[in-house]
Known about the structure:
Blueprint: E1 2-5, E2 8-11, H1 12-15, H2 23-51, H3 60-76, E3 79-84, E4 95-98, H4 105-112, E5 116-120, H5 129-135, E6 139-141, H6 146-161, E7 166-168, H7 186-194, E8 198-205, H8 208-211, H9 219-228, E9 233-238, H10 250-269
Parallel strand pairs: 3-9, 4-7, 4-8, 5-6, 5-7
Antiparallel strand pairs: 1-2, 8-9
Amino acid sequence: MQQKMGGDLMTSRQICTTTGINRNAAAATFDAKNDRMGRLHCVHRADVLLSWLPWSGTHPVARLFQAWSRAFVRALDVDLRLHQKNRQRLPARFILIANHPTAFEDIGIPALFDVVSLAKVQVQDWFVVGRISKAAGTLYVDRDDPASRQQAIQTMVDAVNAGHNIALYPEGGCKGRRLFSEFKSGAFEVSMRTGIPILPIFLHYEAQDDFEWQPPYTLPQKIWHMMTVVNNRANFYVYDPMDPKNYADKYAMKAAAHALYTRWNVQYLE
């Protein structure tokens, strides 16, 4: 949320500190934030401890990752809403795609869907989060390396053929609150090669400025912004799956998907 105050454009984070919240309300807000921090710490610590366990086969963190993601959402106090816009029944097997304005969807999507996610390779080196990510079975790609991108496609094909649902962001990273001008082809190539449909999800954060992840903010700063946002509503819209049999090739499928997202971008964000 943004509004004019004293001639300057202000975000909701700034507004809440300038509108004269009384001391009792401020104290209650501070206690609530501390409570959320405590819950977040407990959720985080449990999964970190599990991630250090040596394990052959599917790691316990992978089995518990959806429950952990839901607990993380509750700890952040984000009001996550699933809107089922689909007219067709959702398939048991799918390749989930979504726009990627924030870091929240990295837990919001697995909180709602049983998926294995594709992430940039740098995530595995992040403090603590990297260990949880690897233990959860996350797939990685170096976005700047063509060979890595091609290997990631084969890894996704193998994961889908092994029975996993996967999730990825065809924009190729966090490009801002508005839809990026083009999609990468990877998700659509995997769909064409495996015959598994694309499940499009459109993400809409009502407080777009507070959730958006762009420089100069770090991940811990964005987590704090999410926890303290005035409007904590996150809307995830599910639409009908896209069957690869209905498209000539991955490029036609990609163009059709981007056209849908362009329409939703206008509908929800403009």
